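Before any further analysis, backbone shapes were mapped to integers, which produced the following:

***
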Amino acid sequence: MVILHDCSGLGPRSSGSPGRWAEKLLDWGYVVMLPDSFGTRGFPDGVCTNPSRERVNVRPGRRAGDARAALAHLSALPYVDKQRIGLMGGSHGGASTLATLNRPRSGFAAAIALYPRCAAFSQLKPDLPLLILTGELDDWTPAKECTPLAGERVTVKVYPGVHHSFDSPRPERYVAARINPSAPSGRGATTGGNAEAWADAVAQVKDFFGRTLKP
């Protein structure tokens, strides 16, 4: 399994969500790889509030290359079935997941995007099963941009009354400095863990990958 981290990266400012998912997947018997797209490119603290023009170097399209490199590495490991490698990511990592699937024959067998920014992928037609989990009250990456993607290979589930980063263990909070293309000012977004949504997401992810990655 390849997990693509969110805009907070994997450093000291990490949201903790990638690690939380990694623990679950390891418990379920998956081999997990978390490529660091930010620290390796000079953004150890992430890009959630960083307006630098250099952030283009970690845009989702660029990170799709990281996902493919991780896939190639896992495929070369003797204890990994290269035909059954999954991809998942949240927020910036979710958009990067969609970017990876935006061209055919990605090499992955199935993918999950958690609260991704879907606006740039309105024509997405993945050639593999894709599950999108998002929150109704997400003011950072609106769920309404993702629901039109639902179709033959794409399942979209929207959690009522839930904000961005519902899989986080941290309480709800609004941070005015967050870069947010969905806000009128371009700044400010709300995040907040939700115990019920988290529990359901765990069940959804386990079931989805259990079905789509089975031998």
